Amino acid sequence: MTLRLVLLALVLWAPSAFAQGPAGDPRDNLDHPGTPTDRYLDAGELRDVLHLANDSFYGCYRKHVRGTKEAGEVAVRFTVQRDGTVTDGVAEMDGAPESLGPCLVDVVEGLTFDPHDGDPVVVSYPLVYQVDRKGARVLPYPVVFTKPRAVRLPLLFLPPDISPGEVRMLERVLVDPEGTPER
Amino acid sequence: MPRIAAALLLLALLAPAAPADAARRDLTYKLAQDKLETLSFEVEHVVTTTFERMPPEAEPYDVEGLESSIASVKVQVAGSLERVVGRVFRDSSLGLVTRVVGLAGTVDRGQGAEAIAFDGLEGKSVSMRVLDSGELLASSGWQHLAGAGRGGDLVEPVLLQSILRLPFTVPEGEGLIPGSFRVRVPVDPLLNLDQTWTLQYGAGEVPKGCRRCVAISYSGTVTEAAEDQHPARPMKRAGEATVSGTILLSGKRGQLLEHAFSVAWTRNVTSHRENDTVRGAIAQTQTITGRIVAGDGQ
Prior knowledge:
The structure holds 2 protein chains of 2 kinds.
Chain A: H1 2-18, H2 43-52, H3 54-64, E1 73-80, E2 86-94, H4 100-109, E3 121-132, E4 135-139, E5 145-146, H5 164-174
Antiparallel strand pairs in A: 1-2, 1-3, 3-4, 3-5
Chain B: H1 2-14, H2 18-24, E1 28-29, E2 37-53, H3 63-70, E3 72-88, E4 94-108, E5 113-116, E6 125-130, E7 136-140, H4 152-161, E8 177-188, E9 191-203, E10 214-228, E11 235-249, E12 253-254, E13 256-272, E14 278-294
Parallel strand pairs in B: 1-12
Antiparallel strand pairs in B: 2-3, 2-14, 3-4, 4-5, 4-6, 6-7, 8-9, 9-10, 10-11, 11-13, 13-14
């Protein structure tokens, strides 16, 4: 009888003991990409939307780079505003036909990202056009480049109207190894 | 019979503790899970800054002029918190998104109060994973508010106080209920602000006409230790504060109606060289007086 009860207890206890705990799954993190509690754009969320636009990017290449194996190095740069719309699209062309640029810009400016609470995000995304035995295609690039805002002197309370010059002076004095004045 | 008793004891030991704790707790926040909750706030910061030790690198600069311009600062901010439960986690904790909106305020650096714009702070949010007791399990988003010129440190206390940890039960009469807890504010992966709160909760005064309301007053101390491991800003901060306040809830499991609070910090901030010797030292005092009210504050 006792053995049965002990076994029953173990059966009841084991799933909770060995299952992944409430915080043991990365999806349970507050800032996990796409979690409804995270109100800031992560690089992963940006990348997912850009990968979905891969066919449109390829459409541009098919129209403007047809018959050419070398399409140069191309990247699109744009800004995601707080409402998720895209502005300031620029195609950085290096050796690619000039007519490709406006087409790529049209694609990125037609994208919509989730609204977010952060500052407008400047994004740079390389486009890799490849032609080989499998045919021509745009490879989904695994990385999206963003420039995070620097957090400056977060341990000091400073007036909210402090000037950038005053902050720079404090940084030079307190933490900058090159803390000598510019002349 | 003893075998059965032993087996039952084993079952009791193996049973998870959290639900039992939850059952004993009779004082919790009621966080609306289906609507946006608005809390208005006003907060005043009075800050003094003294440069206690400046390194030789300071010599070419007008550090005295800078020190005098930030020696005594008074900032008043008013605005609203909009919060919503964005997610219920598997352990029944709640993912709360709290956004600061409608910010307006003044700053006085000894030359008279001047209006300030909060363009970099308006609309920013912090995500907090909390239990309905107010226990803060995790939070994120602070890096979007933090840093010089951003103004995040003006609203950080308001955000934390909007969901301050409650005692287990409602204090009655002259009795005091002790409580101690830690709060971690992860500014970024290289900087955590760690605070230890030690409070005594007592019965507060319920305003006339507030039926079924519960008022809890508290007072105590907070200690803080933070080390910034970012290579561009190697600094440490140690601080102590006295804190007091009163929380008014609509019931034992009630919505926050009002929270008035006061925190008086004494902090020492040091910057460090690569060999960990102190480079510069700054002492700051900061008195924070604030009030959070449900609704639009009327």
